[in-house]
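pasting Phosphotransferase for the record, 559 residues
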Amino acid sequence: LTDHTTFSPVVRLTMRLALALPVIGTGALAVALALRKCEPPLVNEDDKKINDLLKRYKSRLLASPERLAEVEAEFLTQMREGLSKRVVVDGKRMMMLPTFVTRLPDGTETGECYALDLGGTNFRVMHVRLGPRKGQVTACDVEEVTLPKEIYTGPGDKLFDYLATTLKSFIDRHRAAAAAALVPPSERSPSQQMQSSQDQPPLPVLGFCFSFAVEQDGLASGKLLAWTKGFSCPGVVSNDPCALLSAALERVGRPCRVAALLNDTVGVLAAQRYLDSDTEIGVIIGTGTNACYVERLAALSKWEPPAGDEASGDGRTAINMEWGAFFSPHLPRCMEDLQVDAASPHPGKYLFEKLLSGMFLGEAARRILVSIATEVEGLFQARPKDVHALLADARDASSGNMLEAAAATIPKPLATPGSLSSATLSAIVHDCSWGLRKTRRLLVSELGMHQPSTRAAAVVKEICTLVAKRSAQLTAMAVLAILRHNGWADASPPRPVTIAIDGGVYERFTAYRTMLSKAVSEQLGERSAELFPLIKFVLSHDGSALGAAVLAAAAVTGH
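structre below
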């Protein structure tokens, strides 16, 4: 063992570090031998093991056509059950909630509206002017504001005061700008000045997009069932968000007519439907996921619209599906998905969301990579400084413990929950650089790997791609299930249909859009050439806020 030239540089460094520590018996030799085992390049046997693992995960993550058909059948069953009876709120089945929207936008809505969009720790205020031509937006201004933690975890009245104060400043600014565009006071005739002083401007019309669990009892009223997304303001649960907002607006001296209460999915559907009357489905694929679609009132047997509303509409309404709670035992899941679920805030609930949404894509891929690392020793190397820390921590340990610790060559960041974000996963899937050098840099900076090989980067990219493809495949299944439920494919002839989608995964993960389109085409089967060209996916950026304004306009104008 005195001829160090027979060992690799990493092992020689490890032996020198071990000799520098207090005498620990045969532990240093155990560390050196353990690290030497995993340092040489992967041999053909390891390549075969990697290929077998990738095939195994592909078969588990991507469902066969037969399995997808079974999942879709259960999806349709839950839809029909949810439309016919009240569903227990248990996070294990779709809710199919009435939205009280019986006047669906058709592009003829006009007027000036404001919107408040609260869906997380960032909220948006918007001013919209809907023009005289169909689907015309003549002005649109959006301001995004970050809520301080002490506001979204403090008393409920402080939260709504903060929202009202921001909205007041926004409305005042727009009204001042509009007034400045009119004839200056010094140039007005006495009669104009008298008329101006007597005129009382109408209350601003406001749509409130409040993306939390709300049980609605009217288009502009409901009660909060529970806070999520880190909010914990007391005094709001079981109360009406619209009433709380209206009271806060009165306190700050800017009363408004809050004409519509909705969640972000309903907003996306309403916004795109105003622009495109072929829009039938709104989908969110971001941190979370959900969908809303247009349904016949006759099919919603568990709910009756308020008196007079049915006659004023076209016999259809919007249904908030809460599809993140869907579950079927036939869903394509692997052991690592069970681990993700167990470590989540709501184990055993919202299992469909945990396979689709951005909050969980990166974590599912990370756990699979950890499993592969334990199967293929040395595929993902730890950094030398981490090895040094490992030796220092094990200084007083027995030789057996040191051997076990040294053999655990998985980089510490890779083994840390949450270290692989969905944004990083997206960047890896998009990487087409020579030798996957961009991915290799990310593996070093984000996951703590030491000089990752091209082969290691290729394995990571393949797993990230499979996890994203599964999400796209299941989203395609759900969208097609909705269309089949409504008889779209059986119409003679089938008409064009638009699917509006918002959320960071769909907006920023461009490869995901391609995966979704391909999955839809494949799942249409023999009729793909006929039907796929009729389906249009549209990114509805800021759709939730615009939809809130449009629904408020529809409620006020009556059309």
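The two ends are 87 Å apart (CA to CA).
The mean pLDDT is 85.
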